[in-house]
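Example protein was shown:

_____
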Amino acid sequence: MKAIGWAFGVAAMLAATPAAATDTDRCVVEKPADGDLKAYAARYFPKADAAAIDALLACLGDSDPAVRDGFAFTLWSEGLRGQHLSPALLRHANRRLQAMIAAPDDDAGFRRPFAALALSEVARADRIEPYLTEAELHELAEAGAAYLRGVRDYRGFVAGEGWRHGVAHGADLMLQLSLNPRLSRTDADLLLGAIAAQVAPAGSPYYHHGEPSRLARPVLFLAKRAEIDDAAWAAWFKALHPDGSARWQDPYAGDTGLAAIHNTTAFANAIYVSAAGTQDPQVKRLAPLAVELLKAIP
């Protein structure tokens, strides 16, 4: 494990505002000596300025999972869930994280998926206590959908490296947006289009890190929206059915077809199990559509 650029003195941590990171492969934000990130969040964020936020967000690309996931994202989540950030800093983070997910993949492949996960907390904060304008919420939905649709790095957990999980983290952002009552129907369609693109994409491996169930969750919550009628849902599921592409013509002849079968089946099962078992009639209407999808798979 590489050396971590943290200062461990609690007195120093309290005395200085963290500086902006200049090396996005090295986290320069201080870690509390006692490891209590919940308490640290209550001290860090009220003193933070835009540079301090940028420094922490830069840590999301660190190659050490203890820094990237165990420290930076966990501290970020504690800060937002504890409501320690001002609306101005939340808006700053929203813009910064959107830029991160729109940037080309870095060589290690950690920065964009963890920026998407951090952005899901930004979306959640607006759902709990709205601070984004309607236009800003629309821009967030557009950015999140573009990110998820564009994921091509399908690595999940890699021993010694930790998580990337681009599809699942993008789906988590879709989930927080899908729960937002201010989300427009147009934006809901953006989310559904991005989710559909990753159910069984042509370049994906066999999903085995929980991606299908993570993709299913925002779909199930979007089903609660009455303005998405039965015909729209039927058309959306129909588009997931096997088409005339080469991988579906003889799907048992190679990994591309077998992965498509595996991933589509896993997604349809995730939808069916939740939809069939709920008492919510809006969600329950997805169950027969999931069955039809399962029957359509060779």
In short: The longest strand covers residues 157-158. Residues 10 and 34 are 8 Å apart (CA to CA). The beta strands are 157-158, 162-163.
